[in-house]
Design goal:
globular, 2 domains, Fructose-1,6-Bisphosphatase, Chain A, domain 1, seven-stranded mixed sheet, alpha+beta, D-Maltodextrin-Binding Protein, domain 2, five-stranded mixed sheet, 7 helices
Length: 275
């Protein structure tokens, strides 16, 4: 496997995220809205943002793979490195002029045996002026200052975040039962509409944990390494390792991980979630 300077790679991804974030701010209130489904929005800004990020990465790393949310989705692998991009996480917030949206870029590395891991990531929230970064083994940072997860050990002491799928009307795992139950056994819950920001906030010690269903790799790749490098834990909702592609994820400070997992309603048979 060809060695890659992860600091240089993350520096480029961060620069692209911040540049695209400024473009998104410049276009707020002007973007034409299209619909992927009854609830799922997309704008020309989403698509142009992904173009700019993908082309910027490939200009420097032409052999790398790209896995994007919009037009750059590719599932085949020709490189041990793959960039996983959500160009505008929180499009509904963006379209409604709410500040909770972000550019999320994760870097996945695959070894010769086929095992893969996220080795770097950046989440940039342009309207909030915050950039979260992490490299495997080097910690997590917010605007250059090191961050860490909370020390909370009890659900009732903690604040937790989650979200709801666009296709919740089609899924028996719509997360509403978990919301109702966990509202009673935690200090409080939050729903911001951006999984990337939710996970970055766990890493920064603003939330004690996060869980959600139906998320895609580009929703969670960067957030997961942020949580891990900030001292937290990331698994699927059964406590396993199938969180990147399994469409079910828990990310916490580690101390409340098992307690949160235990309180979640068991996963029901669902064609939209891999079993």
């Amino acid at each position: 496997m060809t060695d890659l300077d992860l600091s240089e790679a993350l520096g480029l991804a961060t620069s692209l995220a911040e540049s695209v974030g400024q473009y998104q701010l410049d276009c707020r209130g002007k973007a034409q809205i299209e619909f992927k489904g009854p609830r799922e929005l997309v704008t020309a800004v989403d698509k142009e943002s992904e173009e700019r990020v993908a082309k910027g990465l490939l200009e420097r790393y032409p052999d790398h793979d790209i896995y994007g949310e919009e037009t750059w989705f590719k599932d085949e692998r020709k490189s041990p490195y793959r960039w996983i991009i959500d160009p505008l996480d929180g499009t509904t917030n963006y379209a409604h002029n709410l500040p909770m949206f972000a550019v999320s870029i994760g870097l996945e590395r695959r070894d010769e045996a086929g095992a893969s891991e996220i080795v770097a990531g950046v989440i940039h929230a342009p309207a909030l002026g915050e950039t979260f970064t992490a490299i495997k083994g080097q910690g997590a940072f917010l605007n250059g200052t090191k961050i860490s997860v909370t020390a909370c050990t009890e659900l009732m002491q903690g604040v937790f975040a989650t979200g709801f799928a666009y296709a919740r009307h089609k899924s028996p795992n719509n997360n509403l039962d978990n919301w109702s139950h966990l509202a009673m056994v935690t200090r409080d819950l939050r729903r911001f509409g951006s999984a990337a920001i939710d996970m970055a906030y766990v890493a920064a010690g603003r939330f004690d944990g996060f869980w959600e269903y139906h998320l895609q790799p580009y929703d969670v790749a960067a957030g997961a390494i942020l949580i891990q490098e900030a001292g937290g834990r990331v698994t699927d909702t059964e406590g396993g390792s199938n969180w990147l592609f399994g469409k079910r994820i828990i990310g916490t400070n580690g101390h409340v991980h098992e307690a949160l997992k235990k309180e979640l309603v068991p996963l029901k048979p669902d064609d939209l979630i891999p079993q």
